[in-house]
Amino acid sequence: MRAGDALPPLEIEITRTLIVAGAIASRDYQDVHHDAELARQKGSPDIFMNILTTNGLVGRYITDHFGPGAVLRRVAIRLGAPNYPGDTMVLTGTVEDVQGDTATVKVVGANGIGRHVTGTVTVTVPGAGAGAEGTAVQGAESRP
Of 58, 56, 34, nearest to 47 (Cα)? Predict the structure, then answer.
């Protein structure tokens, strides 16, 4: 973990199932997250991902990289372009600061129409001090 380190990108296919399942799992029953016709009536071209699903995907991106011992301390995100079905969001990250075993990572998630999410995540990796060897999990499994 060193300031300036880039995390490998993670591509996430945005499917209707992902959008609806994320909304249901987070108990967000707003129709724009599961009913395409009602979403269109409200001015959206289709259903779109809710912020809680995005927040979970950002957290997953960080813990997939830093490993199962990683503890998310703070996730601060802002949404931009919606995630619609049929698109792909690519998450990227850069370590901005390291204090002992805690790092601040800048995260960006972009899709075909722009930046969906931007923010920072503070993560603690027990036993990893600044510049520690083996902090990032090499070859961590990427899940869609």
Answer: 34
Beta strands at 6-13 and 88-99: parallel, antiparallel or unpaired: antiparallel
**Cα dihedral sign, 61-131-135-73:** negative
Q: pLDDT-derived band of residue 50, with 50, 70 and 90 as boundaries? A: very high
Q: Cα dihedral angle (61, 2, 5, 55), rounded to 10 degrees?
A: 20
Q: What does residue 88 show for φ and ψ, rounded to 5 degrees?
A: -130, 135
Instruction: Give 96-136 as a 3 state SS string.
Output: EEEECCEEEEEEEEEECCEEEEEEEEEEECCCCCCCCCCCC
Using only C-alpha atoms, the chain has a radius of gyration, in whole angstroms, of: 16
The pLDDT tens digits of the residues spanning 51-92 come to: 999 999 999 999 999 999 999 999 999 999 999 999 999 999
Alpha helices in the chain (DSSP H): 16-25, 36-41, 51-66
For residue 118, report the phi and psi dihedrals to the nearest 5 degrees: -135, 150
pTM of the predicted model as reported, rounded to 2 decimal places: 0.86
